[in-house]
Sequence to fold (107 residues):
Amino acid sequence: MSKFGDNLNIVLKLKGIQQKDFAEMTCTKDATISRYIKGHIEPSMEKLIAFAKVLDVTIDYLVGIDPANNPQVDYIKGQIADHQRKVEELQKELDRIICDGETDGTD
Fold:
């Protein structure tokens, strides 16, 4: 796969978009999308612009120039934030249980 093909495949997976659906969204043949993903061909600038708009990423990300605008990073940051909230909730629950145990009349 080419960098473009890799990135296109990653974004489609992260956004839960099937290749066939993406092809319809961008007025492109499914077989052509497959060839892009496999790195057999590269899209025109017109197609790159359409892909970037539909996928809500930059052209730079799609072609591998801008790793900072990486949907994988955004996804992982979201997962980390979710886990941090869960840890905070569990810590509060643990603190409540410990406090309840200290005030259960055994003083």
